[in-house]
Amino acid sequence: MNILLIGAGGREHTFAWKIKQSSLCKNLYIAPGNAGTETLGINLPVAIADFEAIAKAALVYAIDIILVGPEEPLVKGIVDFFMNNQSTKHIGIIGPAQQAAQLEGSKAYAKSFMHRYNIPTAEYKEFTFLNFEEGCLYIKNHSLPIVLKADGLAAGKGVLICETHIEALAEFELMLIHSKFGDAGNKVVIEEYLTGIEMSIFLLTDGKNYLFLPEAKDYKRIGEGDTGLNTGGMGAVSPVPILTPQLKEKIIRHIATPTVQGLQQDNLHYKGFIFVGLMIENGEPKVIEYNCRMGDPETEVVLPRLKNDFVALLAATINGTLNELAIDIETQAAVAVVAVSGGYPGEYVKGKIIYGLEENIVKGSMVFHAGTIKENENIITTGGRVLIAVSLGDNIKEAAEQSEYILQNIHFTDMKYRSDIGYEFK
Ligand code: AMP
Ligand code: GLY
Description:
With 426 residues, the protein is α+β, with helices and mostly antiparallel strands. Helix content is 28%, strand content 28%.
């Protein structure tokens, strides 16, 4: 099969690495890819949301399956575009249709979906400009802290946890009246603050059946000890030791199965990954958010623990035959540690040469690329998150030490990483 992968981050390098291990893959193309994906397939200079250009490339290269990595093209309707176009509808595309992608694209849509299907989540109410005054009253009477969420995609910045009513009222006004998050904040979800331990689960569904992939926990804050600003993710671990068989059973019964059945009931087209962010308190899971794709850097620890042929999983997703397959999970632990540019998640400088990549290939470990490109003979930085060291080990401590060891031997100016990924499980 010829496969086209959309995206350019560490998640996509990991997908490419796993796809290339399958004998079912003939040619692999990545649009636009990075310096890491270039070693595994052919990078195409095509932007992730340029549907016309993607369709053209898919036809030229006789693509059988398209795997969409990031949410932007999904929320913009890439799956509908391919399905509704006579010349491209024969191509299998992994991801939800635009309406189903609203599970990630609109917090209010996700909340009402969960409400309708009795899926446990935080109590909430939604407000717009039209009921702004009512929202202010709701905030004043709400317990603290209080969570404000811009309805639409806001580059990971649209969730605010406010410790005082004054702060919440000010942020509420900034979102609804002063368009702090642009159109994404035209509707605001106000919800109850949940406490507990966060973790994520990943489902692969063909629209009827689903498989439960290895779980993960990511580390979003820039600083050690979970301090400082939120980032796209500074590291991840899998497995998550709090996921006991009893908790998994509850998640399947109250969250995973009702989610897939709800999509079916709503007649939504969904052949792809569902990433569910959970809060676990006293053994009870609640949904914090849905994403309509895999996570980054979660993919970097989920796929190395997946023993299945990944292309066979993708093909079964397209064909609606996931019920014929079972997930085969590596018992070893995986830990990903992300190397970022100094200054990230604020301003940072690009174009730094990365040294020591070749020498550091250690058995049982991988170095996945995120913000990199090849220029002349050098690999240079092009983003905030630059590289991800991933190792398998007998336990989280061993895998984390190995990933940190790899990064100790890779250099670019002002490179930073956290040395405490997985700390609570070591
Ligand atoms: P989201 O963009 O929905 O993933 O939210 C970003 C982060 O905000 C989550 O990973 C949580 O750490 C936090 N968060 C979101 N909603 C809540 C909530 N209701 N209670 C506590 N923390 C939350
Ligand atoms: N690591 C969080 C995400 O991919 O959304």
